[in-house]
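[recover] target loaded
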């Protein structure tokens, strides 16, 4: 069988709302035409509580995909209830993660019979006697991932092609936290390992088998690695090979302008020239996103505020432009460790960065309560009303004393 791997759709992403929907549809439609089975390793939505308009987009999208006459059918499911036998299989990601036991947005699509949520469970798909077993673990706090794997107790199916699907940061992808699980700690015996969460394409090996991350279908972080074209993987279980298929996506260019010892006019001229060159070379029908990052120290006698970005047309019909000039007034030679850290954080989301700071602060203050720091973070961020979130956290922290 052929497996379509599409990840991180981020439906409802505010900045590029339409792109998120149209590019998700493009990816899923193309993948469903080529594959017998579709698997989605998390972050279908950008928010844990999608607005009704966004949920309607998801329902419409997966309803249309599920109408395809798939020959492969779901024949076994270890979860609570199964509402469809269509081979569209997903797990919740970190953006959909809620507190333990709470219904998430992927659960809603499962209950509607539009896909099969395989979080902490197993689903078996069969076509013409061939079987594929998908084992899934949705996004969890990094410090709890090892324990979650152990608790799941997954044992590969001896009569099937086995897939282990997760939505997690691994140390080999972002090697700066001891909380991150190493790739060799993933369970052995699977034929294919699939991950989401990282928004750029990754092709590695795990226990001698392919470990694949297709990347997101929409631009979100505007970082260097997102300049590659968006798309999805098709994996062939007979040949143990895979191919990457591009979708129609908005082009993105990250341009770094060296302002070292340059005056403001020279800087703005360089930026304008870079923008015009990028626009001229755009061969797509979509307006490109151009992000300009200035690096270096401005000429003596000037300050970053003297760089007149108003002289550059930011709002124009042929491009979406973002210019940053943070920390350019006083640039020091970075130590090698800081440079490495910066590169490692290239793929880190704002939420993950926030969690890492939260954990670091708790550690510095010798946090020692029984409630895990990551669960405490989830509780504090699970409700839009601050008072309710704090009360829930206090109840969880001190319930044993009541």
């Amino acid at each position: 069988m052929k497996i379509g791997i599409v990840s991180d759709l981020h439906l409802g992403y505010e900045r590029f709302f339409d792109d998120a929907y149209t590019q998700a549809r493009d990816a899923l439609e193309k993948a469903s035409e080529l594959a017998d089975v579709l698997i989605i390793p998390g972050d279908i939505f950008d928010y844990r509580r999608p607005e009704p308009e966004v949920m309607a987009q998801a329902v419409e999208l997966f309803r249309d995909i599920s109408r395809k006459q798939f020959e492969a059918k779901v024949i076994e499911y270890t979860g609570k209830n199964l509402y469809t036998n269509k081979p569209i299989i997903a797990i919740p990601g970190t953006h959909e993660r809620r507190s333990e036991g709470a219904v998430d947005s992927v659960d809603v699509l499962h209950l509607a019979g539009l896909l099969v949520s395989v979080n902490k469970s197993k689903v078996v798909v069969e076509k013409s006697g061939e079987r594929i077993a998908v084992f899934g673990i949705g996004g969890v706090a990094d410090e709890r991932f090892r324990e979650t794997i152990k608790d799941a107790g997954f044992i590969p199916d001896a009569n099937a092609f086995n897939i282990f699907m997760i939505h997690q940061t691994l140390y080999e992808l972002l090697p700066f936290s001891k909380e991150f699980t190493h790739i060799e700690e993933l369970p052995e015996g699977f034929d294919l390992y699939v991950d989401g969460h990282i928004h750029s394409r990754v092709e590695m090996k795990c226990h001698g088998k392919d470990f694949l991350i297709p990347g997101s279908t929409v631009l979100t972080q505007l970082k260097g690695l997102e300049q590659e074209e968006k798309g999805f993987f098709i994996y062939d279980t007979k040949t143990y090979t895979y191919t990457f298929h591009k979708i129609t996506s908005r082009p993105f260019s990250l341009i770094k302008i060296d302002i070292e010892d340059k005056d403001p006019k020279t800087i703005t001229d360089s930026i304008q020239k870079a923008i015009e060159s990028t626009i001229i070379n755009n061969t797509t029908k979509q307006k490109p996103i151009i992000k300009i990052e200035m690096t270096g120290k401005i000429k003596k006698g000037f300050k970053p505020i003297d760089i007149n970005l108003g002289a550059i047309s930011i709002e124009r019909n042929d491009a979406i432009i973002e210019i940053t000039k943070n920390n350019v007034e006083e640039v020091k030679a970075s130590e090698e460790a800081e440079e490495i850290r910066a590169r490692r954080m290239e793929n880190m989301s704002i939420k993950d960065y926030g969690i890492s700071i939260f954990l670091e602060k708790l550690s510095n203050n010798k946090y020692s309560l029984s409630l895990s720091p990551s669960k405490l973070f989830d509780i504090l961020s699970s409700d839009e009303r601050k008072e309710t979130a704090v009360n829930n956290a206090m109840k969880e922290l001190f319930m044993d004393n009541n």
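[recover] notes: Confidence is low (pLDDT under 50) at residues 330-337.
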